[in-house]
Every structure is written in C-alpha cells, then in structure tokens.
C-alpha cells in the first residue's frame, strides 16, 4: 500500500469518521465499477462474435451481388446496365439513433426503403437477372450497415471499458489507499493524544495526592 495520505487534514474524531464513510463509499463504488467493467467486457466479446458473423454474411452477400450483376450484364449488356444504374433513384435513407448498453450510448443504424409505384426501368428491355442483382445489392447494403453498426458499438464499448478500468485502478491504487492511510494516521494521532492525556491526568492525580499528603502532614505536625 502506498504511504501517501491527504495533506492539511486535522486529526480529529470527526475527520476520522468522515474518512471512514468516504472509504466505505469509495469501496462500494469500486465494486460497482468492477462489476460494470466485467459486464462490459462480456458484452464486448459478444459483439465481437457478432461482427465476425456479420462480416462473413456481408462478404457472402457481396459475392452473390457480383454474381447476379455479372449475369445481368451478360443478359442485357454492360452499356445498357450502366445507363439503368445512372438513372436509378435514391430509395434508401439511412436513419441514425442510439441505444444504451450497460449505460453506454451506442449507435443504431437503419436503412429505410422508400416505396415506389413502379420500377425505374422497363421490363421489356431488361431481364429478371437485373431484378435479382438489384435485390442482391440491396441485401448487401443492409448487411454493410448492420456490420458498421456493430463495429461502431464495439468501439464505444472498448472506450468505455478503458475509461472504467482507469477509474477502477484510480480507486484501487490511489484514492482508497490515500483515504485509508490518512485514517490510519489520524487514528494513531488520536491514540497518541489519548496516551498523553492519560499521562497528564496520572501526573495531576499523583501531584494532587502528594500535595494532599503534605497538607495533612503539616496539619498533624
């Protein structure tokens, strides 16, 4: 334990009582933060596993989308496919919000699809493979957003774990030891004061006894 203590504090019984209450609160706070940190670490590894699955799903979705696009290109031609792509309307909107995980605000991402009355391209000049490619790329986009949300969540959790760990260490290695050392210092000072007070009282009692004996001797002389 460090020998560091709080400076400029009067060694009184009231101060000792306040220190003991602070030690109790600090210890309770340390235990709560430790529990929170352990829970955050468990959540961190759970999200990490989700990221692995989400990344794998996203890669599969991208492969599927590329294959569908290649088939559509073979069916309707690359130039025609580019023209259709340039005329495609924006029907996906990204919405952002937050949610709380163990008191940590993490991002929540969602793609909202705008409903359209009819396709932006004529079916007579295209192929069903184009429909499949569009759906496949849309699925890939959703998978990327899901992956991005989980990665951002992992980053937030990592930051909170680091911050909470610093607070736990500060309580464990600095704050609680300083409070405890100061309490021990005051306790020893009060004990020394009690011993000195006892010695003074003993001396006074002895002195009074000696004075009484002298007075009694003078009276009986």
Kindly describe this structure.
The protein is mainly alpha-helical and 221 residues long. It has a single domain (13-207), classed as Helix Hairpins (Orthogonal Bundle). It is 75% helix and 9% strand. It has a two-stranded antiparallel ribbon with strand order 1-2. A hairpin with a 2-residue loop joins strand 1 (92-101) and strand 2. Helix 1 (13-76) runs antiparallel to helix 3. The longest helix is centred in the C-terminal third of the chain and has 93 residues, at 128-220. The chain is rod-shaped. The two termini are 66 Å apart. The model has no long low-confidence stretch (mean pLDDT 85).
Present the secondary structure layout:
Elements: H1 13-76, H2 78-86, E1 92-101, E2 104-113, H3 128-220
Antiparallel strand pairs: 1-2
Shape: rod-shaped
Give the helix proportion (percent range). over 70%
Q: What order do the strands of the largest sheet run in, or round the barrel if closed?
A: 1-2
Q: What are the secondary-structure elements, in order, as H or E?
A: HHEEH
With helices defined by DSSP (H or I, 4 residues minimum), what is the helix count?
A: 3
